[in-house]
Each structure stands twice: as C-alpha cells, then as structure tokens.
Amino acid sequence: MPEITIQTASRIEFVDITQQVQRLISDSQMTDGLALVYCPHTTAALTINENDDPDVVADIQRKLAEWAPQHDGYLHREGNSDAHIKASLLGSSQTLIVTKGRLKIGTWQGLFFCEFDGPRRRRVWVQLIPAKESAARSVNNVQ
Amino acid sequence: MPEITIQTASRIEFVDITQQVQRLISDSQMTDGLALVYCPHTTAALTINENDDPDVVADIQRKLAEWAPQHDGYLHREGNSDAHIKASLLGSSQTLIVTKGRLKIGTWQGLFFCEFDGPRRRRVWVQLIPAKESAARSVNNVQ
Amino acid sequence: MPEITIQTASRIEFVDITQQVQRLISDSQMTDGLALVYCPHTTAALTINENDDPDVVADIQRKLAEWAPQHDGYLHREGNSDAHIKASLLGSSQTLIVTKGRLKIGTWQGLFFCEFDGPRRRRVWVQLIPAKESAARSVNNVQ
Lengths: 143, 143, 143
Description:
The structure is a homotrimer of 143-residue chains. Chain A is an alpha+beta fold. Chain A has one domain (3-142): YjbQ-like (Jelly Rolls), CATH 2.60.120.460. In chain A, 31% of the residues lie in helices and 34% in strands. Chain A has 4 helices and 8 strands, in the order E-E-H-E-E-H-H-E-E-E-E-H. The first copy, chain A, has helices spanning 18-27, 54-67, 81-90, 132-142; strands at residues 3-7, 13-16, 33-38, 44-50, 93-99, 102-104, 109-115, 121-130. Chain A has a 5-stranded antiparallel β-sheet. A 3-stranded antiparallel β-sheet of chain A has the order 2-7-4. The longest helix of chain A has 14 residues, at 54-67. The first copy, chain A, is elongated, with a radius of gyration of 17 Å. Chains in contact: A-B, A-C, B-C. At the A-C interface, helix 3, strand 8 and helix 4 of A face strand 4, helix 2, strand 5 and helix 4 of C.
C-alpha cells in the first residue's frame, strides 16, 4: 500500500501533500482512475482547498477553533476532543481523479493533511483504482 | 473527462445536478460501479441532501452563514473566506453508487452543487469507475 | 447490492458498523480495492472516528447539537432540519481501503452510522470496487 509519512511540528498544522500523492501515482502504472487518499488517524483529517494564499488555511483553522475550542468541558479525558470533532467535520479521506497519469484537480486546489493534535508522526495511505480503460489495458498486459 | 457546466445566479445557491450526472452515466457504457463527482473550485462544494422541500436547503444555507459570516475579520483579502471555509466543511466531491446504469441514491436524496461565491460559471467533473463485473465485461469486449 | 440494516433506538445515536461492513467484504470475492459505504437517508450520515472511548462520540454529538439545535426557527416544517444539516456536515458516504480481504483502517478508527432523527429503521449500501490486481485476477477467471 503506497504510503506518505508526515512529521508535523505544531498542534494545528495543514500540510500540502498534493505533490507527494502525485509522485505515488507517477510511480504506479495507473493512467486513468481515482486515488483514494486515506488518513488512519482520529485526530487528523484531509481537505481540499486553496494552496496559493496561506491566509485561506489560517482562516479555516481559526473558524474550526472557534467552533470547537480545545477546552470546552468535553467528556473525553485525553484533552483532544476538539481534534476528534474537527476530524469528523473535514473527513478521513479525499478521493481524487487521475487522468493521463496526473492528478486532475482545480487550478487553485491543493490536498492538505490537517493535523489537529500535533506535533506527531503521521501516515496517509493511497489506494489507486483504475477506470474502465485502464482495467482493460492492464488485462492486455497480463495476456 | 465527462463534465457538467453550471452558471450560478447568486452568491449563495445550491443547484440540483442529479439528473445531469445521470445523463453522463447513461451516455457511458458503465452499468455497475461508482461515480466520483468532483468540484474543482475552492469556493464551492458538493453535498447530498433532500431535494423535495427547498426549505431544507435554505435551512442548511442559513446555518452555514451563521457559522461562517461573509465578513468576520478574515486574513484572506479576497472577501470570500466564508466560501472557502464552507467548501471544506461540505467537501469537494461526492461518490455515488451506480447499478444497472442508474444512480442508486435514496428516495429523498439529490446531489447539489453548492455555490458559495457566485454568480460564476462553474464546472463539475465526473469519473466513472466500474465494479468487478463491469471490468470483466469490458475485458470480454477487448478480446 | 450488499446492504446493512440498522434499527436505531434514540433520536441521536452513533452505531459502529465496522464489523458489519467487514463481513460483507469477507462474503465477497474481493481482496484489494475500496468499499464505498453509502447512506441513502437525508437525516443520517456516516463518519469515521475513535471507537474505543465512547466519550469521543458523545463530545461530537454535543457540539453538533450546539451548532444545529433541534429547534432554531427553521423553515422546513418537519422539525428535523437539524438532522438534515448534520447529515451534510458529516457526509452521506465514507470510502474505505480493502487489502487482503480486510478493511484497512487506523488502529483507533471505527465506521459509525450517525442517526440524527431516530428511532428509525435504516439501511446502508456497500459498493465494492476492485483495485488493479483484483481486476486482472478476475479477468484470469473469466478466460
């Protein structure tokens, strides 16, 4: 299973992993299909948003902190319920289109790993699934 | 890559694109699999919810506006941070089941394109991925 | 279409369905690919989060209720707009990785069906999509 490792440096930090996912795709044989990018952690998430102006990510982080402050009378005793809540809000995975061996994303989009309880060493898994034509092509290779 | 274009008329507007996605599926050869519907814009999103009573969408839009008001001391200077934030909350894609050439969704469900910074001309991409049986069938065609 | 049925007992209730999804995968022939788990209801959702300490789910439910109270001057007259709003926030589907016939999820992760307008009898659909190797293998079987 192709995997990306990320060492975060702060409690809250968004890391643009678009190019790392692209490299995994380039290393594979897949030309057309989808890439399921999956975060196996419960206090982190994945999101797609603008990666040009870092103020966008800062604004997202600020509103998330207003909605789910770090300390808010939570029942869970590990002190990171805010991180769990934000993880469910943004989601544990993102699914991206691959065409001609390249991620097909919007001009201003980047894929971010969202750390909500760092600093930690994190992993992200990438499952590649071919579209019809790729499947047919892979079959030709088999024969 | 099959694509849908949408001309929105307001700053905030949810457009039901279920039938447009269904037409793309009908035009394809795929009978069973999934449809990844992808929004390449960072100030718009996709969501699945009730498309019978338009008050449901109005209620969703109102709460989103309460959580992320248009003006709220954001750092990003383009005046649309609220739209970026809502895009990450609802998500850039939705993945739908296809069986017997039809979208398999709930009785009350519709797929909405969510405009948060219109009016604009927008695009949505659709990647179709076959399930096992379809893959096998496509292989028979190749031989 | 493989299906899970869930009878919820309360208005708000998260049900861990990880093992039920695993059983559907075990019953299938698929070893590597993805499982699209889909909720066809507009007042329920799916999320992935910690399934070890039930306080995590309780904290998530409490914040969701603060953001979208049951009664809040909603336009939709069925009295369950809060449930529709929460459904769009968490999402109608989750996509999971399958390797060697097993769900590949994080150590602390579980997949939850999120009831927001129960008690009701609910369904969840599971679409299995093979990765490249599985597709090739299925082809060999065909020949």
